[in-house]
Design goal:
With 262 residues, the chain is an alpha/beta fold. The protein contains eight helices and nine strands. The chain has helices at 19-28, 57-67, 84-97, 117-125, 148-165, 181-186, 198-209, 233-252; strands spanning 6-12, 45-50, 73-77, 102-105, 131-135, 143-144, 177-180, 214-218, 221-222. The chain has a seven-stranded mixed beta sheet, with helices on both faces. Helix 5 (148-165) packs parallel to helix 8 (233-252) and helix 7 (198-209) runs parallel beside helix 8 (233-252). The chain is globular.
């Protein structure tokens, strides 16, 4: 059995083209078959949150659990598409209940490079940060195969969030992250309101307001090669207009404080 203090949460909806490949690559990290780029040798477990994928994604995961990865791969199945934010919160609660110290968010479609997981882990476990963000914009614009319009929308959305909220993060909408368990224990998860990509902004903002330390680790984001994107104008709309509400909350809401952080 490969024991790990780290769990990678992967939400899925119709990801049959990608799910087995991403699982195999992540679970190979830190093993004899594939050492991470930094030589750290750290291994990760995976929790898939599947929202009733009609394409059989959950069946593929359960087959891998039964045949090869019973101790390292887990799944929570939900009925219907309930939103990215609620999927991650369900995953956070599961991870905390099962004793994990480092909890990751990651997409199934290889837009997030699994080889960057050890770097995010190191930022928290070795350098002592509370949150590590796989950042597309901390060292320029590191996005591959996105249409220029989408690159500009994403880049300036992050600039807008930073301007309005004051959060010292360049990639505020990033969905590739590592949290120390104390962050998720402290944040009042039942008060997180956004369900789409606004969820990513709200989680970072809440962690920052609670006094946790954040590091942006530069990564290259590659647009999915297989499957269908789940992005929509409504998702961006929620993020855009929700930022004003976050700013209002920042003035008047009392946030929980990280122990020892003031």
């Amino acid at each position: 059995m490969n024991k790990s203090d780290s769990i990678v949460i992967i939400p899925t909806y119709n990801e049959r083209e990608n799910i087995e490949k991403i699982i195999r690559v992540v679970l190979a990290l830190g093993t004899d078959t594939q050492q991470p780029a930094d030589g750290g040798g750290h291994c990760f477990n995976i929790l898939v949150i599947d929202d009733g994928s009609p394409d059989g994604t959950a069946g593929i995961v359960k087959g891998l659990m039964a045949d090869e990865f019973a101790d390292r791969l887990f799944i929570v199945e939900r009925q219907g598409k309930q939103g990215l934010g609620t999927a991650y919160i369900a995953g956070f609660r599961w991870a905390l209940d099962h004793g994990y110290d480092y909890i990751f968010e990651m997409d199934a479609d290889f837009s997030h490079d699994p080889d960057d997981l050890p770097r995010l882990y190191s930022a928290c476990a070795d350098e002592g940060y509370d949150v590590a963000i796989g950042s597309r914009y901390v060292s320029g614009v590191n996005v591959v195969n996105w249409p220029m319009g989408r690159v500009l929308m994403s880049y300036f959305a992050s600039k807008y969030v930073r301007l309005i909220t004051g959060i010292p993060v360049h990639d505020t909408t990033a969905g590739f992250k590592c949290y120390r368990r104390q962050v998720l224990e402290t944040i009042e998860l039942d008060k997180i309101r956004f369900k789409g990509y606004g969820f990513q902004i709200e989680m970072k903002f809440t962690a920052w307001k609670a006094g946790f330390t954040i590091k942006e680790v530069p990564v290259v984001f590659v647009n999915r090669r297989e499957g269908t994107s789940k992005m929509s104008g409504g998702i961006f709309g929620e993020a855009f207009f929700g930022v004003m509400r976050l700013r209002w909350d920042g003035w008047f809401r009392k946030y929980p404080r990280a122990v020892g952080r003031g």
